[in-house]
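Support request from a user on the community tier.

User writes: "When I paste my structure tokens into the form, the page sometimes reloads and wipes my input. The last time it worked, I copied everything first. Here is what I submitted, just in case something in the input itself triggers the reload:"
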């Protein structure tokens, strides 16, 4: 469970993860390098892909610093995300863009890349409330209306290749899957990818736009003024339904009602093709595959074995095989009626 089954790394000579150098002093000094004086208060926020801290400042409200995971995105890809969220903020869409400091939104300090954000609080949205879903749908549509105006050139798309084939290939080539389950996983993942392709074929050609990309309830904070959207770190090009389906939960009948509530708000600002409903289970399948590969790719980060001790166990892979078998069946069912 400590890593890939065929690891050739000399375990007697552990290599420090790049984040090991991101000490509290380094975080505070990074902010000071921008001419902003900290009062010494530092709080690590819940984030695994990046490292995110709330830092108190001598004058004004605390700020949030995001230190980007080394070697994940290029500078150009990060700046594309910053530009997108700034476009949204300029249209008075409730997002939290990176602050422009010294004419830059992306900063460098001791080998780390980071950005500074205003602190925005909020509570989890009541996704069982039809009015909340409709309100959220309206703002997602406004995000998409802006997202459709330009394309990403530095960021990969969310598609079968990047989330499906690449994820499965990584897991198998790095031999994370136990030998006695490898054949079963290879077989069911192939069936799942074929099912995904059938769903895409049924949906036909659909517009691709800049998305939030990870638009679930945890990335929507609610206040009395309504929702605001945070963490565009996974923003990519993809179909609009990607930012809608993760709001759904419960039995099929509940999901039909929830989607109706979301679209009641969404279609105030954007058209929605019912053909996109063919992609709901396909995108869920791709997300499941991508999630396993994400954990595997990050397993050298000491934070991951501590936070996800159940990953890479025999039981974990048995559950994933069963999960994908269920998805194969679901993808051949009729899509949610809307």
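"...and here is what came back when it finally went through:"
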């Amino acid at each position: 469970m400590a890593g890939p089954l065929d690891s050739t790394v000399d375990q007697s000579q552990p290599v420090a993860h790049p984040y090991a150098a991101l000490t509290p002093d380094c975080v505070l000094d990074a902010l000071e390098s921008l001419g902003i004086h900290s009062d010494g208060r530092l709080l690590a926020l819940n984030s695994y892909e990046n490292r995110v801290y709330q830092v108190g400042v001598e004058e004004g409200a605390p700020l949030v610093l995001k230190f980007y995971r080394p070697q994940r995105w290029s500078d150009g890809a990060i700046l594309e995300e910053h530009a997108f969220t700034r476009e949204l903020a300029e249209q008075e869409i409730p997002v939290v863009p990176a602050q422009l400091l010294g004419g830059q939104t992306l900063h460098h300090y001791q080998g780390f890349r980071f950005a500074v954000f205003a602190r925005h609080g909020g509570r989890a949205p009541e996704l069982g409330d039809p009015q909340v879903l409709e309100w959220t749908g309206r703002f997602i549509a406004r995000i998409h209306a802006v997202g459709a105006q330009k394309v990403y050139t530095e960021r990969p798309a969310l598609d079968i290749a990047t989330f499906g084939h690449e994820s499965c290939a990584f897991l198998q080539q790095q031999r994370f899957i136990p030998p006695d389950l490898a054949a079963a996983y290879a077989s069911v993942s192939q069936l799942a990818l074929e099912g995904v392709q059938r769903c895409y074929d049924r949906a036909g050609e659909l517009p691709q736009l800049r998305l939030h990309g990870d638009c679930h309830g945890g990335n929507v904070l609610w206040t009395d003024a309504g929702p605001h959207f945070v963490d565009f770190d996974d923003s990519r090009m993809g179909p609009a339904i990607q930012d809608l389906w993760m709001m759904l939960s419960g039995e099929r009948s509940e999901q039909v009602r929830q989607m109706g509530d979301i679209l009641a708000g969404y279609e105030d600002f954007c058209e929605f093709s019912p053909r996109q409903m063919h992609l709901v289970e396909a995108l869920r399948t791709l997300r499941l595959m991508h999630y396993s590969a994400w954990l595997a790719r990050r397993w050298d980060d000491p934070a991951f074995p501590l936070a996800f001790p159940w990953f890479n166990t025999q039981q974990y892979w048995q559950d994933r095989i069963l999960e994908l078998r269920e998805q194969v069946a679901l993808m051949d069912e009729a899509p949610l009626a809307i």
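Agent notes: The reload is a front-end session timeout and is unrelated to the input. Residues 5-13 have pLDDT under 50 and may be disordered. The first strand starts at residue 38 and ends at 44. Escalated to web team.
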